[in-house]
Specification:
- The structure is a single chain.
- 42% of the residues are buried.
- The chain is globular.
- The longest helix has 18 residues.
- It is α/β, with parallel strands linked by helices.
- 37% of the residues lie in helices and 27% in strands.
- It binds adenosine-5'-triphosphate.
- Adenosine-5'-triphosphate binds next to helix 1.
């Protein structure tokens, strides 16, 4: 399997203070890889470094073998990295349609009615709410909108930062099913940064554990259900 994304000794943080240190791993093309860890472990910092919002102070990031370490977030989006931030980042005063069309401005695919149709096929509930303002959607619908907005840009790598955050369990299950469906039907490679064990178990192929800014171990997603493991690595 060829690598979609490779991190080699990546150190990154804020204002010169390292938060993640010497992080090395790769995601194979077509894999769903989860990174779990307790609050403050550095998961969001890792995601922001991968998508180019933070520049690493050391190490390399390769996308399909190409060095993107010095590319900014816009260049990485054009190269195929799609990012759904924690908290979703949708525009509350814009309609569902308008939010989705914004996705075509940053991704690889040009704006088109066709692109919207594809997203509405995945999320019929959003189609029913096309003209509704993003801020009036439920938490789960907002998460679907945020994911739809990224998919519209036709990413090769989808980076999801805690998609389960603030969403009721039945909707988390729907989002998990969607991640699996996108992977099975379109081979979409996904990096899932999560604390929700059920979500990781139901969709990830592999799982890394992050603690204090480092990847400390790999565990099978099922292995997360071991209470001793959860106590050691995930309890706050
Ligand atoms: P959570 O699950 O709570 O979102 P996380 O694993 O995603 O946690 P990060 O958000 O990456 O963790 O935070 C890791 C560390 O980086 C924390 O100690 C946090 O205070 C610090 N940090 C995060 N954002 C900034 C920032 N903008 N400036 C300075 N430090 C920050």
């Amino acid at each position: 399997m060829s690598a979609m994304l490779e991190l080699e000794g990546v150190t990154s943080g804020y204002d010169g203070i390292p938060i993640i240190r010497d992080v090395t791993f790769e995601i194979g093309e077509g894999q769903i890889l989860a990174v779990v860890g307790r609050n403050g472990a550095g998961k969001t910092t890792l995601a922001r470094t991968i998508i180019g919002l933070l520049q690493p102070s050391r190490g390399k990031i390769l996308l399909r073998g190409e060095d993107v370490t010095r590319s900014d977030a816009r260049e990485r989006a054009l190269a195929g990295i799609g990012y759904v931030p924690q908290g979703r980042g949708i525009f509350g005063r814009l309609t569902v349609d308008e939010n989705l069309l914004l996705g075509t401005a940053v991704g690889k695919r040009a704006a088109s009615e066709r692109a919207l149709v594809d997203v509405y096929k995945l999320f019929p509930i959003l189609e029913q709410r096309r003209l509704q303002k993003g801020g009036t959607l439920s938490g789960g619908e907002q998460q679907m909108l945020a994911i739809g907005r990224v998919l519209i840009g036709a990413p090769s790598l989808l980076v999801l930062d805690e998609p389960s955050d603030g969403i009721q369990p039945s909707i988390v299950e729907q989002i998990s099913n969607l991640v699996v469906q996108l992977n099975q039907d379109h081979g979409l490679t996904t990096l899932l940064v999560e604390q929700n064990i059920d979500m990781v178990v139901s969709c990830a192929h592999r799982c890394f554990v992050m603690d204090k800014g480092s990847i400390v171990t790999e565990v099978s997603p099922k292995g997360l259900e071991d209470p001793e493991f959860a106590r050691q690595y995930l309890a706050v």
